[in-house]
Amino acid sequence: MITLLNGDCLDISHEIPDETVDLILTDPPYNISERGAKPEWIDPTTGENKNTVHSQKFDESFEHNWDSVSHEDFVKLLSQWSNLWYSKLRPGGSFAVFISDVYISYLWSAAESVGLEPKRIFTWKKPAAVPFNRRVNPVSGCEYILWGIKPIKGNYRRTFNADASVGTIVERYSAADKVSSIVYKYIAQGLDLKSAFDMAEAESLEVLSSRKVNVLGQVECVIPNTIVYSGGSTRDRIHPTQKPQEILEYFIALLTNEGDLVLDTFAGSGSTGRASLDRSRRAILVERDPVMFSKMSEKFKFE
Ligand SMILES: C[S@@+](CC[C@H](N)C(=O)[O-])C[C@H]1O[C@@H](n2cnc3c(N)ncnc32)[C@H](O)[C@@H]1O
Asked: What is the b/e burial string over 81-107, where b = at least 16 CB atoms within 10 angstroms of the residue's CB?
């Protein structure tokens, strides 16, 4: 089941019942578009920075610039959004919020000050990062997700599905991390790429087959707070910062159970909704921009 709401998440929050949500999975504006502007990126006539997310493909879909408010205003918004998430989460419910490195500490403090319990930063490492601004900055090869819970109360429990099942992405990422650490070791020893990969393949098969198996016959693996993932399909892309469905599914599989309710207060293309439905969860999606909202609604018209 999916519910789509068009409006500013702060203004229409009354439409979402309090303490009903099992997971807030959301990707607010990063508010970093205007940072690091070089003189040649500034349009001499309009003064506009031409090197932001808004100068990229799909931006004509939006009615207004959604990623540029002042630092002070953005920090206030982080508090207001944290408050909203607190009121909608059930006790023991989880939140996983995408955030840029610039604002991790601000979001952590904002979440804590409204009573949420931030627990860890997940780092999503993107080996094929876009070499944007590479002559003035180290290329940003990571994104960050702040994960935490609303404190447990009464009979409520938190969900953390640490038993990864064979074949799920949770296991795949754990296996990929293992393999990449082994490849790295052989490359550091000076082996050429082909030999390093051959050695890593043999060793990783051995390592994975020696892992503990649980009562259901599934391989037990540790859930790391790093995810290595490149790409994702661009076929259905309608949003400039659309998140890969598999990353969203990773968090949904880890932090909710079938039938649970997922809320995305900054839905964009609706990718969190798609991932939730495909994982047999319910979802509420909020998107402020009317043009993006209608594109997103189109995608769910048969649900
Ligand atoms: C970073 S994008 C999210 C992209 C999304 N994760 C996806 O995969 O398509 C943020 C979205 O939040 C919307 N937005 C910004 N401020 C909002 C607000 N106050 N309430 C609701 N939506 C908002 C923007 O229009 C934009 O589509």
From this structure: bbbbbbbbbbebbbbbbbbbeebbeeb
Separation between Cα atoms, residue 50 and residue 255, nearest integer Å: 39
Question: If you average pLDDT over residues 232-256, what whole number do you get?
Answer: 86
41 CB-contact burial (10 Å; exposed 0-12 / middle 13-18 / buried 19+): middle
- Domain boundary among the residues 201, 222, 243 is at 222
Instruction: Based on the fold, state whether residues 152 and 239 are members of the same structural domain.
Output: yes
- Average pLDDT in the 218-227 region? 73
Tokens of 192: 């050429």
How many Å lie between the centroid of ligand 1 and the Cα of residue 243? 11
Q: Residue 69 sits in which domain range?
A: 2-159+225-299
Predicted model pTM: 0.84
What's the whole-number mean pLDDT along residues 14-24? 97
Ligand 1 atom with minimal separation from the 265 CA: 21
Yes or no: say if 227 and 164 are a contact pair by the CB < 8 Å rule. no
Query: Which residue's CA lies nearest to atom 15 of ligand 1?
Result: 66
Q: Are residues 243 and 292 in the same domain?
A: yes
100 & 201 share domain? no
In this prediction, residue 54 has a pLDDT band, given cuts at 50, 70 and 90, of very low
- Total domains in the chain come to 2
pLDDT at res. 56: 47
